[in-house]
Design a protein that fits this description.
The chain is mostly helical. It has two domains: 33 residues; 219 residues, Orthogonal Bundle (MetI-like fold), CATH 1.10.3720.10. It contains twelve helices and no strands. The longest helix is centred in the last third of the chain and has 35 residues.
Length: 269
């Protein structure tokens, strides 16, 4: 028995050459990729700036953090939440007809193909570019951020809505059709009860994403935390920047906790 095991071990494939070649190729690719990284934009006081930002988070400007005026952190938190929430609502509402048009199990293939092209076109442009475009149209402010969040949400929400529609249990629709129900009744009693939990869960998940994106869009003047944060950091007001970051962290943690509980409730019933 031991001899057979020893013989089988000696006859095992000698793949060390293959592993060596693979390791050399991987190391070569890493070295080649690292050669493209430029460090000329870094400064010697970059580490000190990072420490100042962390110090500002742990020692925020309390007068700014609890300022209840329109320039305080609570108002900026509320504005950011409103931009993300209303943008999600707009995107979710627009995505419903687009998803039904693009679902191949409900509409003819040519129409579904056109609907998917529209969704792909909406997903092509980054949120930052949309923000710059809408600021030129409406001017800087929260409304530009709302429109940006709404358009950016269409691509992802529509795609996930389509997947939910294509996974429908068609037997329910066929039974309603056999009972003589019209199109609206089939949608009301056969389709919507199956889709609403998935639709709501997708919208909540997108709201989490929009809440973070709304902060970035504020840097181009689309409302929320972004612009005051950039101004504070450019002016080296680290305590004020720390207050903004502390408020943002608390806001995201609260929204994450609430949205996770709601999604679990929708999924598990």
């Amino acid at each position: 028995m031991n001899q057979r095991i020893q013989q089988a071990y000696e006859k095992r494939p000698k793949d060390w050459v293959y592993n060596l070649i693979t390791a050399v190729i991987v190391v070569g690719l890493l070295i080649w990729s690292g050669s493209a990284v430029e460090t000329s934009g870094s400064t010697q006081d970059g580490g000190q700036i990072a420490l100042n930002v962390l110090s500002g988070i742990f020692h925020p400007d309390l007068s700014f953090l609890f300022d209840l005026s329109t320039k305080g952190v609570p108002y900026l938190m509320l504005e950011t939440v409103c931009i993300a929430f209303l943008g999600t609502i707009v995107g979710a509402i627009i995505s419903i007809p687009l998803a039904f048009i693009s679902a191949s199990n409900l509409t003819p293939l040519p129409i579904a193909f056109i609907g998917r092209l529209i969704i792909m076109a909406a997903r092509t442009i980054p949120a930052f570019v949309y923000g710059l475009m809408f600021i030129r149209v409406t001017g800087p402010g929260a409304f530009a951020g709302l429109l940006t969040m709404g358009v950016c949400s269409i691509g992802m929400i529509s795609k996930m809505y389509i997947e939910a529609i294509e996974d429908l249990d068609t037997r329910v629709i066929e039974s309603l059709d056999a009972a003589g129900c019209n199109t609206w009744q089939k949608i009301r009693y056969g389709i919507l009860p199956q889709l609403m939990p998935n639709f709501a869960s997708t919208a909540i998940y997108r709201f989490d994403i929009n809440l973070r994106d709304a902060t970035i869009l504020g840097m181009v003047g689309a409302g929320g935390f972004g612009a005051p944060l950039i101004f504070a950091m450019n002016s080296y007001r680290w305590n004020e920047a720390g207050a903004l970051l502390a408020g943002l962290i608390v806001l995201i943690l609260i929204i994450e906790f609430i949205s996770t509980r709601i999604r679990v409730k929708l999924t598990r019933g």
